[in-house]
């Protein structure tokens, strides 16, 4: 049995920096710079980008499927761990994780640091890179899935499915953190669409009307 929660449950045997206290470890000399976490931002894209490049060009360097498979899975695993445990909490203040209680029940926890003081310190460039990398890479793997499926390359299809599963897990987890674990994603999307429609309606109603049509135009071509 599994459940989702947003409660702050302490990690068991966890020696990492407590969630929300990452700012205390931030180098003050980087304040005001374009990137406050340059190395984290780099590795957020490096591992997933490397996995895609190895998948695309592995045939140029080796004819061994096993070698290519192992290298791609290694980079995918490194990317999954990095995005889940490091880049998410440092770049955007989000974290998702799982623990099993004493009754053997598995709990999924989705945390978000949404205070105004914290969000004002989030680097917008890093935030943009985080979400672009998180969303675009699964799109590439989805295209690779179609190519492998219609090309009848079933051994590569297994590798692509592993990549999609790992990328989709992080994407789903962070979208869940961003919208709130207690809020259904369908309702969040519906609320977003409603908000956009309302804004468009208000814009149409408040938009200044154009010049009135001329009233002294003589009709032409009347039979």
Automatic annotation (TrEMBL):
Q: How does it sit in the membrane?
A: Multi-pass membrane protein
Q: Which biological process, per GO, is one annotated for this protein? A: vesicle-mediated transport
- Transport recorded as keyword: no
Where does this protein have compositionally biased stretches of type Acidic residues?
Answer: 12-25
Q: Where are the transmembrane segments?
A: 39-58, 64-83, 129-150, 156-175
Q: Name the GO cellular-component terms.
A: Golgi membrane
The record lists the organism as Drosophila mauritiana
Supply the alphabetized keyword list.
Membrane, Transmembrane, Transmembrane helix
The cross-references to InterPro entries, in alphabetical order and at most eight, read: TVP23-like
Source species taxonomy: Eukaryota, Metazoa, Ecdysozoa, Arthropoda, Hexapoda
Query: Would the keyword Phosphoprotein be found if you checked this record's keyword annotation?
Result: no
The record's similarity note reads: Belongs to the TVP23 family.
Q: What is this protein called?
A: Golgi apparatus membrane protein TVP23 homolog
Q: Which Pfam family, just one, is annotated for this protein?
A: DUF846
| Disordered: annotated segments | 1-30
Q: Tell where it localizes.
A: Membrane
């Amino acid at each position: 049995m599994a459940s989702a929660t947003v409660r702050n449950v302490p990690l068991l045997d966890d020696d990492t920096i407590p969630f929300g206290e990452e700012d205390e470890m931030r180098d003050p000399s980087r304040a005001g710079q374009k990137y406050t976490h340059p190395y984290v931002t780099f590795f957020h894209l490096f591992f997933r980008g490397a996995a895609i490049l190895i998948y695309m060009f592995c045939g140029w360097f080796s004819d061994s499927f096993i070698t290519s498979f192992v290298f791609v899975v290694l980079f995918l695993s490194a990317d999954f761990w990095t995005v889940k445990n490091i880049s998410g909490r440092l770049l955007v203040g989000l974290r998702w994780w799982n623990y099993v209680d004493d009754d053997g029940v598995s709990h999924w926890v989705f945390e978000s640091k949404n205070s105004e003081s914290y969000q004002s310190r989030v680097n917008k460039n890093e935030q943009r890179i985080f979400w672009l990398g998180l969303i675009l890479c699964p799109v590439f793997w989805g295209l690779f899935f179609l190519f492998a499926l219609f090309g009848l390359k079933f051994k590569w299809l297994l590798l692509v499915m592993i990549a999609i599963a790992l990328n989709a897990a992080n994407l789903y987890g962070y979208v869940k953190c961003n919208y709130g674990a207690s809020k259904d994603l369908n309702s969040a999307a519906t609320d977003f669409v409603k908000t956009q429609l309302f804004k468009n309606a208000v814009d149409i109603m408040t938009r200044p009307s154009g010049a009135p049509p001329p009233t002294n135009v003589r009709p032409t071509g009347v039979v």
